[in-house]
Design goal:
Largest interface: A-B, 25 and 19 residues
CATH class of the largest domain in chain A: Alpha Beta
CATH topology of the largest domain in chain A: Rossmann fold
Largest sheet of chain B: 8 strands, mixed
Radius of gyration of chain A: 21 Å
Oligomer: heterodimer
Number of helices of chain A: 13
Strand content of chain B: 15-25%
Helix content of chain B: 25-40%
Mean pLDDT of chain A: 96
CATH topology of the largest domain in chain B: Rossmann fold
Structural class of chain B: alpha/beta
Order of helices and strands of chain B: HEHEHEHHEHEHEHHEEHH
Strand content of chain A: 15-25%
CATH superfamily of the largest domain in chain A: Thiamin diphosphate (ThDP)-binding fold, Pyr/PP domains
Low-confidence stretches of chain A: none
Number of domains of chain B: 2
Structural class of chain A: alpha/beta
Shape of chain A: globular
Distance between the termini of chain A: 50 Å
Helix content of chain A: 25-40%
CATH architecture of the largest domain in chain A: 3-Layer(aba) Sandwich
Number of strands of chain A: 16
Strand order of the largest sheet of chain A: 4-3-5-6-8-7-13
Number of domains of chain A: 2
CATH class of the largest domain in chain B: Alpha Beta
Distance between the termini of chain B: 43 Å
Largest sheet of chain A: 7 strands, mixed
Strand order of the largest sheet of chain B: 2-1-3-4-6-5-8-7
Number of helices of chain B: 11
Chain lengths: ~400, ~290
């Protein structure tokens, strides 16, 4: 059987370029990270990752324990416990599969387990749909998971390595989920730079659970009943760990640049054509592609539009983002998710952005929310133009609805 | 005057949803045909019939039959059906789902519904694999089979589903292959009239993901395989009907026994504990409605 990611071009030192999908990129990252235990249960679009990993394991190219569990609930429980005994673990799911694992997803951050997961974003049932929506991963946003959204196969690979580095840092010990838009990213091929094993070894130290290791020589009880005596203090420890992620993520990105020679700039959000922008659009994941294309077209017509792509949703870099957004006359947030009954009935990201802006000093641009591309529907260039038009109106002081559904058949 | 002949099963199908998602050579459509014939033959009251499916290729059955149906979340067909039956005991509740849905992610529900002897009829189309998601190893996949998660062959033991559900308490257990269309229809018609937890396993080809990867030919080749390897052994001990990759397929009606179903046991216990003070609301309701 052929190697998973054959090189299109090889560089000195073992780096190579390969044409692979977003899912393959995650599998290759797991191989490079030398993950010890991986569990799987099929659900589209995540299942492509488990198949690529199965191939690597079967071919002897990856030394890890690999089990197809009988459902997502067991799948996430198995790796959680493997992590408690010191194994580096990987897991993943999509849509309702991720939701079925919710009990395990709840206890994982509470027990300070540095599990790394891939969420192949998929619309929740019902009605059934295979296409992308972000409500699956967002469902754990308050529980202590670090959540990052990527928009390319390269970023998926790199973020997986960074996720291990941050999650397994002794100051953190929190799980991290890497969200990849179903189909648009998981199933699309692109040319990727695959780093060498030496580079990864330098970047990623072995997982060391130290005094928290569940081992016969270190008798501890994991998850004892604590009740009101200690629960608040334990929650506070989780809070403190999440607060530390801002600094540890910055460290990891700086080291990443030093070792791999590629930079992402600001780890928390990407700015595109914002230097002279009047207004900006915001969003997460692969909608960056149509948005960037539309922006380039609109700029030819003289509209100074920029784009801010949120890369880390948890932790949420509120202060930095507020500072960034205060430079613009208006902001349009495109949500590939929904939050029924929320303030202004908007999307999740729009609500978070308004929240981030509220306490800051400085200028507060109007923030409009746009719900678009649900269930895997494409976010089109005309959609983006329509959104931009409304954002410009808001910038000129004209009253606009705070939440609009774009690309809806009516 | 000439008349245009109509397939007698058509009234049971939502033809506007056709063509189906099922691949050429897949056996699920055959089982639906058998199901429609069983409905005709048994004269089941369609107003009191509900079909519940889970997720997967077989899970799509709920959308193709012109009957009251529900397409539940993955693995949850049996709990949904249990709720349906308890809330409305006069319904004939059929769970129509695949091996992955029923025995993997829904495996716990399967054994507990059999243990309680919930009066539901479970039709399990077993293609020995998770087909819809790309042919991963399922708990029913026999050993030494090539799957997308075991490219060099499976090694973890597979469930013998008739043995499992018999041990858990099912009152009717049969297995056929999609080659045995008459026997399938007959078993289905039988279970409509049999009170308690009934289980029919139907082996079905997945030429796209199982037979192809294992060099076992197409749908027609699988029919020949079923024909040559099936041995009808009614009443045989279910401990002897486990499936292997190339071995014989023991088919037949293995279990047909009687024991009180869940609602009857509940009724009897309340009568024993409360005597005359117990009022069976369900019986009273049925009496009022003249059922």
């Amino acid at each position: 059987m052929a190697t998973l990611a054959p090189a299109v071009e090889e560089k000195k030192g073992g780096e190579r370029t390969a044409l692979i999908t977003g899912s393959e990129a995650i599998a290759v990252a797991c191989q490079l990270a030398d993950v010890d235990v991986i569990t799987a249960y099929p659900i589209r679009p995540y299942d492509t990752v488990m198949q690529y990993i199965a191939k690597l394991v079967s071919n002897g190219e990856m030394d890890c324990e690999y089990i197809v569990a009988e459902g997502e609930h067991s799948q996430f429980e198995i790796v959680k416990h493997a992590s408690a005994v010191g194994a580096r673990v990987f897991c993943g799911s999509s849509g309702v599969g991720w939701m079925y694992a919710m009990e395990a997803l709840t206890v994982t951050p509470a027990l300070r387990i540095p599990m790394v997961c891939m969420v192949g974003n998929r619309a929740l049932d019902d009605p059934g749909a295979f296409g992308t929506e972000h409500n699956d991963a967002l469902a754990v946003r308050d529980l202590g998971w670090m959540l990052t959204w990527v928009d390319s196969g390269q970023e998926a690979l790199d973020s997986t390595l960074i996720a291990y580095r941050v999650a397994e840092d002794r100051r953190i010990f929190l799980p991290c989920a890497i969200s990849c838009d179903g189909a648009f990213l998981t199933h699309s091929q692109s040319l990727l730079q695959i780093p060498s094993q030496e580079q990864v070894n330098e970047f990623l130290p072995r997982y060391n659970r130290a005094d928290l290791l569940l081992h016969p020589d270190n008798p501890i009880t994991v998850a004892p009943q604590a009740n009101e005596d200690w629960v608040m203090e334990i929650r506070r420890q989780n809070y403190a760990a999440m607060e530390r992620t801002y600094g540890v993520i910055k460290e990891a990105f700086a080291d990443f640049e030093r070792i791999f020679g590629r930079s992402y700039g600001n780890p928390f959000f990407e700015e595109y054509m914002t230097d002279d922008a009047d207004v900006v659009l915001m969003g997460m994941g692969t909608l960056s592609t149509p948005v960037k294309v539309a922006i380039r077209q609109m700029r030819k017509a003289g509209k100074k539009v920029g784009f801010v792509r949120l890369r880390w949703f948890r932790p949420f870099a509120a202060e930095e983002l507020a500072q960034c957004l205060s430079r613009f006359q208006a902001v349009g947030v495109i949500d590939r998710d929904y939050s029924f009954g929320s303030p202004h009935s908007g999307g999740v990201v729009a609500g978070e952005v308004r929240n981030a802006l509220y306490p800051g000093a400085g200028k507060k641009p109007p923030v409009l929310g746009f719900i678009c591309g649900l269930g895997g529907r494409e976010v089109t260039i005309p959609d983006v133009e329509k959104i931009t038009e409304s954002v410009y109106q808001a910038a000129e002081g004209k009253r606009q609805p705070l939440t609009q559904w774009i690309g809806l058949r009516e | 005057m000439s008349t245009i002949p109509i397939n007698p099963v058509l009234p049971f199908l939502r033809t506007d949803r056709m063509p189906t998602i099922w691949c050429p050579g897949c056996g699920i459509g055959t089982t639906v045909n058998c199901f429609a014939r069983a409905l005709l033959d048994s004269g089941v009251d369609l107003k009191h019939l509900a079909i519940v499916s889970g997720i997967g290729c077989t899970g799509r059955v709920a959308g193709y039959v012109k009957l009251d149906s529900f397409h539940t979340t993955h693995g949850r067909a049996i709990p949904f059906a249990t709720g349906l039956k308890l809330a409305n005991p006069k319904l004939n509740v059929v769970v129509y789902s695949g091996d992955g849905d029923l025995s993997a992610i829904g495996g716990n529900h399967l054994i507990h519904a059999a243990r309680r002897n919930i009066d539901i009829k479970v039709i399990c189309v077993n293609n020995l694999i998770y087909a819809m998601t790309g042919g991963q190893t399922a708990p029913t996949t026999p050993g030494h089979v090539i799957t997308s998660t075991h490219p060099y062959g499976t090694f973890d033991p597979n469930f013998n589903l008739p043995h499992l559900v018999e041990a858990a308490g099912a009152v009717y257990v049969a297995r056929w292959t999609t080659f045995h269309v008459r026997q399938i229809a007959r078993s289905m018609a039988e279970v409509f009239k049999k009170p308690g937890f009934c289980f029919i396993e139907i082996l079905s080809p997945c030429p796209t993901l199982y037979q192809r990867r294992n060099k076992m030919g197409d749908g027609l080749d699988t029919m020949k395989f079923y024909k040559e390897h099936s041995k009808i052994k009614n009443g045989v001990s279910t401990s002897e009907v486990g499936l292997t990759r190339n071995g014989d397929i023991i088919v037949g009606k293995f279990v047909d026994r009687d024991r009180s179903d869940y609602l009857t046991m509940a009724h009897d216990q309340f009568v024993e504990a409360l005597g005359d003070r117990y009022v069976d609301e369900c019986a009273a309701e049925c009496c009022e409605e003249g059922i």
